[in-house]
Design a protein that fits this description.
Strand order of the largest sheet of chain A: 4-5-13-10-11-12
CATH class of the largest domain in chain A: Alpha Beta
Helix content of chain B: 25-40%
Shape of chain A: globular
Number of domains of chain A: 3
CATH topology of the largest domain in chain A: Rossmann fold
Order of helices and strands of chain A: EEEHHEHEHEHEHEHEHHEHEHHEHHEH
Largest interface: A-B, 48 and 24 residues
CATH topology of chain B: Alpha-Beta Plaits
CATH architecture of the largest domain in chain A: 3-Layer(aba) Sandwich
Low-confidence stretches of chain A: none
Mean pLDDT of chain B: 89
Mean pLDDT of chain A: 94
Number of helices of chain B: 2
Oligomer: heterodimer
Structural class of chain A: alpha/beta
Distance between the termini of chain B: 36 Å
Largest sheet of chain A: 6 strands, mixed
Radius of gyration of chain B: 12 Å
Shape of chain B: globular
Structural class of chain B: alpha+beta
Largest sheet of chain B: 4 strands, antiparallel
Low-confidence stretches of chain B: none
Distance between the termini of chain A: 68 Å
Strand order of the largest sheet of chain B: 2-3-1-4
CATH class of chain B: Alpha Beta
């Protein structure tokens, strides 16, 4: 059963019933799910969680939906990998990679959508919808297909092919919108206000966002019921980043772990960095930006949780960093070449920002750190297609292979211009 | 009569200007500040603007021309990654 009992305004604290609403009528603040933590604590132990399924549904007591309505395509409990080679490359003693590229639609969005669709079914909605630059669209389309629900997915008209096909294969109504990001935002807000659909990041957003806490739960459980010194997470709307921290705090609140002392740091692309820019300027008021970056999954110019992300940085003595598109590509390659994990552009942002934060001294060498890798690289193959090493093209003869290999070794040993 | 909720974002010198006052005098709309956080160099205001549709649009277009950023008062971008 769910121990959620109300929606509460994050600004003025007013409470509302658990309905498909997302903002406070009084002050327009965002609504967040409120839980009965005493009841959760009384009914949840490390052992009860460990005996649960190897998906995010092992944390059902902490989710804002009835487990009977779940659409389980295997999301969550993804590997936490000790990344010794990447640690050495960036200059850390201990680094872990939380590998969310292995979710069913290859991104962490399966976590939020799992919760959103369960709650939507519980409300009685018959159709799901979202506006997305790719990952969310893929996940909503997949979960809707598995649930047999109608699905409406709105995407900008200039997305990477992998992300378009990655939604289309589940046969939703795929709407490709011509125009700027602002146009897509405006149209989808209008559609959401007149259609009786569960728009995952609008009218069921308070429930949807809670799914990200499971990343925090898993990191703590997989580290042996404790939290790391530092977490580096990508930031788009800022929701994931704040919810990982909330997950740590809640695990402590229900008695599963000691008080978390983790420093939370966020990673953004320089081409869309409203939160990191505000952090650098020392203000909690971010200025919306027009995105221009290869990291399309982080291209949120007006981040819904930007203010709360900046508050979390302040509270945890964390910080934020931003990197250029070239640095993002180098980050993707570094993660792949050291740990065998092929991440999409957001993963490149995380790794490149982590490296920069170690170099600047923001993260100390002896801080045990976790890098959150949120999506798989085959979705954004265009970003690195011309940056990988050329294959050795040869006729099918052993002597040609030997000579091609010798020529390759010579090139490596004698770089051009040497 | 219609009502629209928008988020105005100000930067730099814009912060000092009484833009909402001017908007209410130049156009036939009623303005109502519902939430705000204004500092010395940046600030934002969630503003309820009431009036005829055309007049609201004209007023908001004018605010944009004056250098304020005007967004729908959703809780941020609807499009996600």
């Amino acid at each position: 059963m769910s121990y959620s009992h109300a929606l509460r305004c994050r600004e003025c604290g007013r409470e509302y019933p658990l309905d498909p609403i997302f903002s406070c009528e009084f002050c327009f603040g965002p609504l967040e799910v409120a839980y009965d933590y005493e009841a959760i604590a009384a009914n949840t132990t490390r052992e009860s969680i460990e005996a649960g399924p190897t998906t995010l549904w092992r944390y059902a007591n902490l989710l804002p939906c009835d487990v009977d309505y779940k659409v389980d395509i295997g999301t969550g409990f993804t590997p936490l990998i000790k990344a010794d080679r990447l640690a050495k490359a960036v200059g850390l003693d201990t680094l872990w990679v939380k590998n969310d590229t292995v979710n069913p639609t290859w991104s962490f969005k399966d976590r939020v959508v799992s919760v959103a669709i369960a709650r939507a079914r519980q409300f009685g909605f018959e159709a799901m919808a979202c506006a997305s630059t790719g990952n969310l669209a893929n996940s909503v389309a997949a979960h809707s297909a598995a649930a047999g629900m109608d699905c409406f997915v709105f995407i900008p008209d200039d997305l990477e092919q992998g992300k378009v096909v990655g939604s289309g294969i589940y046969d939703p109504t795929l709407v490709m919108i011509e125009g700027s990001y602002d146009d897509v935002n405006r149209l989808c807000t209008e559609v959401a206000s007149v259609r009786p659909w569960a728009f995952v990041n609008i009218n069921v957003r308070p429930y949807y966002a809670e799914g990200s806490r499971t990343l925090g739960f898993e990191i703590a459980e997989q580290l042996g019921w404790r939290t790391p010194d530092h977490v580096v997470s990508p930031m788009a709307s800022g929701s994931l980043y704040t919810k990982i921290w909330k997950g740590f705090q809640e695990f402590h609140k229900v008695g599963l772990i000691d008080e978390p002392k983790t420093r939370m740091s966020g990673a953004q692309a320089a081409g869309c960095s409203p939160i990191a820019t505000a952090y650098e300027a020392g203000t909690l008021n971010f200025v919306p930006q027009k995105p221009n970056t290869i990291a399309r999954s982080l291209a949120i110019g007006n981040p819904a949780d930007g203010y709360y992300a900046l508050k979390t940085m302040e509270e945890t003595k964390g910080g934020a960093e931003m990197v250029t598109d070239d640095e993002i590509v180098e980050g993707i390659k570094l993660l792949a070449e050291t740990e065998g994990i092929f991440a999409e552009t957001a993963g490149g942002v995380t790794v490149a920002c982590l490296k920069k934060m170690v170099e600047s001294g923001h993260i100390a060498r002896d801080e045990e750190s976790v890098a959150v890798i949120t999506g798989g690289g085959l979705k954004t193959i265009e970003a690195v297609a011309d940056k990988v090493s050329e294959p050795l093209r040869i006729p099918a003869r052993l002597e040609d292979f030997d000579s091609a290999l010798a020529a390759r070794d010579e090139r490596v040993l004698t770089p051009a211009g040497a | 009569m219609a009502a629209k909720h928008v988020r105005l974002t100000f930067e730099g010198e814009q912060v000092k200007r009484p833009l909402i006052y001017e908007l209410g005098h130049q156009f036939n709309v009623v303005t109502n500040i519902r939430m705000a956080d204004v500092g010395q160099t940046t600030g934002w205001v969630i503003l309820e603007v009431e009036g005829d549709d055309d007049e609201i649009e004209k007023a908001l277009a004018w605010a944009r021309e004056q250098g304020a950023r005007v967004d729908e008062a959703t809780l941020g971008d609807v499009v996600e990654g």
